[in-house]
Amino acid sequence: MAPYAGVVYGASYGDDFGVPLLSGAGGFVEDMVFANRQVRHAFLRKLLVLVALQLLAVAAIAAPIHGNKPARKFLHANPWVNMAGNKLMGPLPREWQALKGLYFVRLDDNNLSGPLPPQWSQLSLLSTVNLGKNFLTGPLPGSWGSLKNLAELYLNNNMVNGSLPEAWSGMDSLYFLTLDNNQLSGTIPQAWGAMRSLRFISFHDNPLLTGCVPAAWRGRVRFQGKGTNFEYVASLSEEGVLANTGLSGWCSSSSSSSSSSSSGSSRGGSVVQEDGK
Q1: What CA–CA distances, in Å, run from 95 to 143, 147, 167, 189, 199?
Q2: What distances in angstroms separate CA 179 from CA 16, 20, 112, 185, 188, one per listed residue?
Q3: pTM exceeding 0.70
């Protein structure tokens, strides 16, 4: 049977739906959409193995299938995975570091746990990653700062802890970042002020997050407030933007221009009010 390339949609409920398609004779999967299908742990294990085997073709590896018969078709250069709104459990697979063409991942609204894999920093084409509404823990991997094409990153409503990596200032394309409802601590690195593409961010409900907000964001970045139904505002004093955090307002210009090599560069600078006084 000739290989196929196409989109695989979950068509029914249960642990095993979609597996025959994924492991069919001579088959390659281009895109996977398993959103809101109540996928459970047993299916996730099978899926991860199949994904790892078949999506390796994204890296232009001409892997043989069914004996020595080579594949005549390969995966689309930029595959995407959508398994949002299921009951997936367990850790994020670090093995996905091999899926070099992966550019879109939605695993939000599941029961995933464990740390964010530092190995995903090797997925240089990633553009959108949505991991919100899970039970993820551990620190934000500094290695993800090398993801130059990452434009949207959703980490809200998890249990991620630790400090904000200064290395993330290297995310040149990052446009949308949600960090609210976590357990982050420390200050916002002033180096983040240099994230030239950043336009939307949320960080409310991180009680241990302290210091001030980079002045370089003023007039450029909008903030989501608590309970605003995804509305973003420009003012730090409105709509619960700083709700349940230790953040005190805008940093002074002198604080923003200084080095952020220590937390004192954020916390020690004077704080300006909304009117600039």
Answers
A1: 16, 17, 23, 30, 31
A2: 34, 37, 17, 11, 12
A3: yes
